[in-house]
């Protein structure tokens, strides 16, 4: 009897301990009065939840309910794991209305979880404190390029939609062909908002086709959300091409791009506080918006073997075992020249799922311009977890598609003066060790752009001067007994 009693006491203590380990209560509160007046939230038929880093940004746990004081404040207390105490969580409130999710359109809310739990102050849903005024907003997009390359086929039932903060990023706003401009699709939205509010949006191609050229990026425009200010008066959103891809921004030829990424010291963005190194790197992959890239975590069942990187001296990698992983990837004719991409790591132990978006945060992607008219170009080395907000030009060398040259030559850069990029063409008649080095006016070496054996051919070197000060520079080519130096000017 004594043993049974002792066992029951120990079991009770264990269960209480486990319960306490998951008991850091945080109370969420949001005022819904304006959303109710706008007809965006009906307590009788709609539900309200909060999603964030603590619940995988998904599901309906918890459901918020109106508090004891009937002032349209909805609340829920969530028992967070003790491991989140002292860390910062991110979250948003979400309305479930007419079988569709409507997320807050503002940036993620944040809260530093105190030890023992806490109460988050009351906020208005989406920070909207008044009903606002009603006006028309005309969205318009030029689809001619997408039709020309076969990514948008209206005769096969393809549709173009505008999705954004004003419609919960849903599919209700279907655009129709303009009666005035050929190749242009429009949507006239009637919106009730506060003057000064910002509308975020993207155009989206919806297709049921399974063959032929499909829209890139799953139909979404790439990059950050587009924004337009709501004035309270009728406005027309400026006309632009879908994803800003006009006829000058698509490749006229196939181009091989060798991507490179330094993985030494790489940290897992999905870890607490985003700062824990990967325990062991199994594989490195690239994901992106333009074919043949795709967002791995959105299509986990697709074949990703062609997007795997290597550090063994193969597949475009220069030096085995130097922690710089690489992959030679073919971008075909009619692909956009601007490439949006991100790296992803498969690791052990402890990975919850793969593929995983573990390099950086949402929309913190790399951007690069591919140069046309070359067969292959090697990209400058990226560093895992380090990205640039501006478009990065591929500073590197591509082989120009011409007949084999008969002599060495170094051409004058064009344009000159330049800002921020310029091109230098040079020729190599036989396989040679080639170096091209940049110097300032004092003769100090600034950078070495080429330093390797190259086969006979004509090459184009693209230099990105974004990180150089205005001034005069000299570039010098050495190959065999050939030496030549030329002057160029960077003006900002």
What descriptive keywords fit this protein?
single chain, 492 residues, mainly beta, Immunoglobulin-like, 4 domains, 8-stranded mixed β-sheet, 5-stranded mixed β-sheet, disordered N terminus
Structure commentary:
The structure is a single chain. This protein is mainly β and 492 residues long. The chain folds into four domains: 2-127, Immunoglobulins (Immunoglobulin-like); 133-244, Immunoglobulin-like; 255-391, Sandwich (Immunoglobulin-like), CATH 2.60.40.10; 398-490, Immunoglobulin-like (Sandwich). It has three helices and 35 strands. The strands form eight sheets. Strands 18, 22, 25, 26, 28, 29, 30 and 33 form an eight-stranded mixed β-sheet that branches. Strands 1, 3, 4, 8 and 9 form a five-stranded mixed β-sheet that branches. Strands 10, 12, 13, 16 and 17 form a five-stranded mixed β-sheet that branches. Mean pLDDT is 88; it is low at 2-21 and 389-394.
How would you briefly describe this protein structure?
The protein has three helices and 35 strands. With 492 residues, it is mainly beta.
Report the CATH C-level class of the largest domain: Mainly Beta
Indicate the structural class: mainly beta
- DSSP strand count: 35
Coarse morphology? globular
> Total helix count?
3
Gap from first CA to last CA: 88 Å
The largest pleated sheet is described as: 8 strands, mixed
The CATH architecture classification of the largest domain is Sandwich
Low-pLDDT runs? 2-21, 389-394
Please report which band the strand proportion falls in: under 5%, 5-15%, 15-25%, 25-35%, 35-45% or over 45%: 35-45%
Total domain count: 4
Average pLDDT: 88
| CATH level-four homologous superfamily name of the largest domain | Immunoglobulins
Helical residue percent?
under 10%
User: What kind of oligomer do you see?
Assistant: single chain
Our Rg estimate from Cα atoms comes to 28 Å
């Amino acid at each position: 009897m004594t043993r049974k009693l002792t066992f029951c006491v120990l079991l009770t203590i264990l269960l209480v301990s486990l319960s306490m380990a998951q008991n850091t209560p945080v109370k969420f509160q949001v005022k819904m009065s304006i959303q109710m007046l706008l007809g965006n939230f009906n307590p009788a038929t709609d539900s309200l939840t909060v999603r964030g880093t603590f619940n995988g940004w998904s599901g309906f746990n918890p459901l918020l309910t109106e508090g004891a004081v009937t002032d349209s404040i909805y609340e829920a207390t969530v028992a967070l794991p003790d491991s989140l105490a002292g860390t910062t969580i991110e979250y948003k409130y979400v309305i479930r209305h007419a079988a569709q999710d409507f997320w807050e359109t503002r940036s993620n809310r944040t809260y530093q979880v105190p030890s023992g739990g806490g109460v988050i102050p009351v906020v208005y849903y989406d920070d909207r404190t008044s009903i606002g005024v009603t006006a028309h907003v005309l969205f318009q997009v030029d689809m001619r390029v997408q039709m020309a390359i076969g990514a948008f086929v209206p005769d096969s039932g393809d549709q173009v939609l505008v999705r954004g903060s004003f419609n919960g990023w849903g599919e209700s706003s279907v655009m129709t062909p303009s009666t005035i401009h050929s190749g242009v699709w429009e949507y006239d939205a009637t919106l009730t908002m506060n003057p000064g509010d910002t509308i975020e949006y993207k155009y989206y191609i919806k297709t049921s086709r399974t063959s032929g050229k499909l829209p890139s990026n799953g139909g979404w425009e790439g990059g950050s959300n587009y924004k337009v200010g709501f004035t309270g008066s009728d406005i027309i959103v400026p006309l632009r091409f879908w994803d800003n891809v006009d006829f000058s921004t698509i490749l006229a030829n196939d181009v091989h791009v060798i991507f490179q990424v330094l993985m030494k010291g790489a940290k897992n963005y999905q870890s607490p506080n985003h700062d824990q190194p990967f325990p062991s790197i199994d594989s490195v992959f690239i994901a992106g918006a333009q074919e043949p890239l795709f967002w791995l975590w959105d299509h986990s069942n697709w074949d990703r073997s062609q997007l795997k990187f290597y550090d063994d001296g193969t597949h475009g990698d220069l030096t085995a075992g130097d922690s710089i992983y690489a992959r030679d990837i073919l971008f075909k004719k009619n692909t956009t020249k601007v490439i949006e991409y991100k790296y992803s790591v498969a690791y052990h132990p402890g990975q919850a799922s793969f593929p995983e978006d573990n390099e950086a945060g949402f929309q913190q992607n790399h951007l690069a311009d591919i140069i046309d008219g070359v067969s292959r170009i090697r990209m400058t080395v990226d560093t895992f977890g380090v990205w640039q907000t501006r478009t990065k030009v591929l500073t590197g060398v591509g082989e120009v598609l011409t007949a084999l040259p008969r002599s060495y030559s170094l051409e004058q850069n064009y344009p000159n003066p330049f800002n921020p990029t310029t091109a230098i063409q040079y020729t190599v008649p036989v396989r040679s060790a080639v170096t091209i080095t940049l110097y300032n006016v004092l003769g100090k070496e600034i950078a070495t752009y080429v330093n390797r054996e190259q086969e006979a051919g004509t090459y184009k070197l693209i230099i990105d001067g974004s990180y150089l000060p205005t001034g005069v520079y000299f570039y010098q080519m050495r190959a065999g007994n050939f030496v030549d130096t030329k002057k160029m000017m960077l003006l900002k």
